[in-house]
UniProtKB/TrEMBL annotation:
Residues 168-315 form the CHAT domain. This is CHAT domain-containing protein. Pfam families: CHAT. Residues 43-68, 103-125 are annotated as: Disordered. Residues 104-125 have a biased composition (Basic and acidic residues).
Length: 353
């Protein structure tokens, strides 16, 4: 029998027990009533002086005693049924417990196999990424690489003002940070997350961090991004204002990522002021958004160009079997080849050797 069948059996037994308990109470009340009536009739027999009344009361007592005996028999039968029901329930519970334990053991075994497969897959992807980035890095001259800063900052803006169906922005940041820690040039990329971002936080953070990459993660539409007001409520900011904000940081910002639904237009507008901008042309699921960001920054941390990091992020979505591999879009400023936009400077001495 399946787990559901055992559970249904247990429910039926519990309902049956409730019915038996109800019947037991009913029969016990009837027995008490008969006992009271017998006692009353016997007292009336003793008080009466009429022989006819005495014989009538005696017949009543005899009749009620027979009914009382039958009530006792019914109570005994119910008690027996209750005992059997209790035993059956215990057996059904044991069967259910065994079925649940077997299912959990099976699920645990399957999860271990999935984890082992994921680890093998991730090691394979990492080897492929390192090889691809090594081949790409050989195309760049040492002079081009020396012009790159020793360390870049990724300014990560996170805002989710809705209480229901919250986005896993914390998981996105954590996964990106973990991937960067595993990257070849882990010390060259600094991740600076800013949470529950309000409009006034944007310029403050831009001036403080002077980032190479600005990343927006949260909710969006074709014309605006959602941030939070002072009370934590949704605060929309128009595409035009976001574009002006990007322009104000264009002296050091090279890449902008809008990891939010329907943010394609914002990215296209931002690409007029920075080398590369990435946005979403449709709704994007939480898992897909997280996987995209995770793989993009992993590739950046291995020294990949923005184009190659973007391509690898799309490929990772497909490899994981997630929907939305065609949702992210990349835009570049006129005259800029995103395949030549490299953010992280590799170890030139090691590269030369």
């Amino acid at each position: 029998m399946s787990e559901d069948m055992y559970r249904n059996k247990l429910v039926r037994l519990q309902k049956k027990r409730a019915e038996l308990e109800k019947g037991k109470g009913r029969e016990a009340k009837e027995f008490e009533k008969l006992e009271s009536e017998i006692s009353k009739a016997q007292k009336e027999m003793l008080r009466t002086k009429s022989e006819m009344t005495r014989r009538s009361k005696a017949r009543q007592v005899e009749s009620k005693r027979k009914s009382a005996v039958k009530a006792q028999e019914k109570l005994a039968k119910i008690e027996s049924d209750l005992a059997k029901n209790f035993s059956d329930q215990a057996g059904a519970q044991r069967q259910l417990d065994r079925a649940v334990a077997q299912r959990m053991k099976k699920e645990e075994s399957q999860e271990k196999r999935r984890q082992a497969e994921r680890m093998r897959h991730e090691r394979s992807v990492s080897r492929e990424i390192r090889e691809q980035n090594r081949l790409y890095s050989e195309r760049l001259s040492a002079e081009q690489l020396r012009d790159l800063p020793e360390k870049i900052k990724v300014l990560f803006f996170a805002a989710d003002p809705f209480e229901e169906d919250r986005l896993r922005l914390d998981r996105e940041v954590r996964n990106v940070a973990e991937r960067l820690r595993m990257a070849e040039y882990r010390d060259s990329v600094g991740l600076e997350p800013r949470w529950a971002v309000r409009p006034g936080d944007l310029l403050q953070a831009l001036n403080e961090a002077k980032p190479r990459v600005v990343h927006f993660s949260g909710h969006g539409s074709e014309d605006e991004l959602l941030f939070e007001d002072e009370a934590g409520n949704p605060k929309p900011i128009s595409k035009e204002d976001i574009t002006r904000f990007i322009a104000l940081g264009s002296d050091h910002v090279r890449v902008v990522i809008f990891n939010a639904c329907f943010s394609r237009d914002q990215a296209e507008a931002a690409a007029e002021h920075v080398d590369v901008a990435i946005g979403m042309n449709a709704p994007i699921g939480d898992e897909t958004a997280i996987m995209f960001a995770e793989q993009f920054y992993s590739a950046i941390g291995f020294g990949a160009s923005v184009q190659r990091a973007f391509d690898q992020a799309l490929n990772r979505i497909g490899l994981e079997g997630l929907p939305g591999a065609k949702t992210p879009e990349l835009f570049s400023r006129e005259g800029v080849d995103p395949d030549e936009v490299v953010l992280v400077r590799p170890d030139l001495e090691r590269r030369a050797s």
